[in-house]
Model the fold of this input.
Amino acid sequence: MNTTTKRRRGRPSIPKEVQRQRLIDAALRILEKTHFEKTSVADIVREAHMSSRSFYDQFKSKDDLVAEIVEEKARQFFERLQTALKEPSSEVERVSRVMRAYLELFPLATVDLERLGGEAGQRVREVRRRYVQLMTDIDMRWLERLYERGEIARIPPRATVEFLLTGIEGMSFRYYSEGRREELLALHPVLLRVFLRALQEPPAAEN
Done:
C-alpha cells in the first residue's frame, strides 16, 4: 500500500496578514504617484499583483483601506514617539521631535480625509482625535516640568494646548490632501515657534 503523502498542487497560500500588508504597501506606492481619489481598486490590486477577490477579503472598500493606512501610520507614530522621548535632549528639543514626527507621519499623499464617510470616516476621526490627545498629554507634562523648575510663570489650560494642536493637525491634513507634504515639513520651525510663543502668552484680561 502506497502511503506517500500527495503534494498539493499550485502555489502555497499567502497568509492573510501578508496579503493585507501587500495591499497597504501598494496603496502607499500609488499615493506617491497619483491622486488617490482617481485610483480604483483595480489599480491597487494590479500594483500589489493580487486579485480583486483578495482585496475584498481584506477590506470592505477603498475608503476602508485608507482608514487602515491612517491607523497603521498612527501605530508607527506612537512607536516613534516612545523612542524620541527616551533620547536625551532639552525640553524644547523634545517637543520639536514630537512635532516633527507628526509632520513626517504620511508619505506624499493626496487623500481628502475630510470626505471619508461611514465607518471609515469614523475610524479616521478617532485616530486624529488620539493624535491630538497624545500630543497634548506630552506637552502638558513638559509644561508642568518647566513650571516646577520656575522656567515659566504659569501652566496654560489644557484646552489652550489642545486648541493649538488641533489647528496644526487640521492644517497638516489639508496640506497632505493637496499633496504638499514638503511644504508642510518646511514649516516645522515656524509652527514650533508659533506654538511655543502662544503657550507663553499671558491670558487675555477680562473686561
